[in-house]
Each structure stands twice: as structure tokens, then as C-alpha cells.
Design a protein that fits this description.
With 216 residues, the chain is of the alpha+beta class. The chain has helices spanning 16-29, 100-112, 120-138, 180-186, 191-206, and strands at residues 2-6, 9-13, 42-44, 54-60, 72-74, 79-84, 92-97, 148-160, 168-178, 213-214. It folds into 2 domains: 1-31, no CATH class; 41-214. The protein contains 5 helices and 10 strands.
């Protein structure tokens, strides 16, 4: 016989009920039973420099003539091309080369951060629910006028989320979200937004790498 206390209540369990109750308590404590070691994504990509496998763009809606060229392009051979438009500090074009292990880790991080599997409809619904709750409890509504849209494109020859998932051939995923970093601050309860913002920050870190070489 086992005594188990939750809050101000004491439960008496025995036999197999003990194991079942302890498992349920552990799942609740972990916040829904997320696995400690999530399945690792699998992927293949072309190891050439013909078409970028990752592109990162920030669309500034308030600019009269935004620069259409991506801030960042990553190729399968490890080459990274950075383009900083004229309205940014250090404007110009730069390059660096990632070793295979670092390139692999970058793609894996985009999968683990949810960029590749991002569901914009589901996340937008959760965001609207959070806004409605904030409006009901605080009586205020925040509006960001100068919107910035984050666009991340990932192209892989093959992608498999985990061992149980069906592989996707010729993946061409386009992630797009407005005011991503602001939403990450406004909605800390949204794990999808938090992870996507972390993925964006990883890409932005490439824009300021000390090993960037400016092109003539």
C-alpha cells in the first residue's frame, strides 16, 4: 500500500494503480508529457551552390522601396552569402563558409525550432485566442503599425520529421510571420512562436559573424 499526497489531499494506492498514478503525475509535472528525447529529423540536400537551401528575408512594409534581395542565402556546399541593404549598418555583400557539421546543425535547428513544420493557421488561431484573453483581462489592445515580415525558405531534397513520419521529397517550405520578435515578447505562452523566434535569431547571428568576408 502506498500513500501519495497531492495538494491537501492524501491518496492510498496499491499494486498497479501506484505505477499508473505515478506515471500520470510525472506527465502532468512535465507539462503534457513532451518526450525528453524528441525524434531527430532526417534530411538530404544538394551539396552544390546552384540554388540556396536556406533563404532569410525581412520585408519592411514601411519602406517605400524595400531591397528585394534576401539578407541571407545558405548553399549546400556551405557557402553563406549575406546581403545588407543600404539602409542597414555595414551595408554591402559578404560571404563565409560553414563546415559540413555546422551546416547540418543549422538545418537541424530549423527543424527542431519548428520552422520547417510550422503550422501558420493553428498558430494564428492560438494568437487570436491570446489577444482576446488579454483584451478581456486588461481591456487594452496593442497594434504595431510598422510591421516587419520574417520570411524563411527551406529547400531540401528529402525531409522526414521523425522515424514514424512519412518522408517529404523536394521540400520547399516558406515560413512567413509578421513581427515575430514582438509576438515572442507578447505571447510567451506560445511555444511555436517562441521556437520560431529562436530560429530567426540563429539566422540573424550569421549576419554578424566575425568571419564574414566583404566582397568587392
Amino acid at each position: 500500500m502506498t500513500f501519495f499526497r497531492v495538494g491537501g489531499f492524501q491518496f492510498i494506492l496499491c499494486g498497479m494503480l501506484t505505477a499508473a498514478f505515478m506515471l500520470a503525475a510525472e506527465v502532468f509535472a512535465q507539462g503534457g508529457g513532451a518526450p525528453a528525447n524528441p525524434p531527430q529529423p532526417r534530411f538530404r540536400f544538394a551539396t552544390d551552390a546552384v540554388e540556396p537551401i536556406i533563404e532569410y528575408v525581412e520585408v519592411q512594409e514601411m519602406l517605400a522601396a524595400p531591397d528585394p534581395e534576401p539578407l541571407l542565402r545558405v548553399y549546400g556546399d556551405g557557402r553563406v552569402h549575406v546581403h545588407l541593404p543600404v539602409y542597414m549598418k555595414r551595408a554591402g555583400d559578404y560571404e563565409l563558409r560553414l563546415p559540413p557539421a555546422e551546416l547540418d546543425a543549422l538545418i537541424r535547428s530549423l527543424a527542431q525550432d519548428g520552422i520547417i513544420d510550422f503550422d501558420p493557421v493553428a498558430v494564428a488561431q492560438g494568437r487570436q485566442q491570446a489577444i482576446a484573453q488579454q483584451r478581456a483581462t486588461e481591456g487594452t489592445l496593442s497594434v504595431i503599425s510598422d510591421a516587419t515580415e520574417t520570411v524563411i525558405t527551406v529547400r531540401l531534397d528529402e525531409y522526414q520529421r521523425g522515424p514514424a513520419a512519412a518522408p517529404i521529397l523536394k521540400l520547399n517550405k516558406r515560413f512567413a510571420w509578421k513581427n515575430l520578435q514582438q509576438d515572442a515578447r507578447r505571447f510567451p505562452q506560445s511555444q511555436a512562436i517562441q521556437r520560431a523566434a529562436a530560429g530567426q535569431q540563429r539566422l540573424r547571428a550569421l549576419l554578424v559573424r566575425p568571419d564574414l568576408q566583404k566582397l568587392p
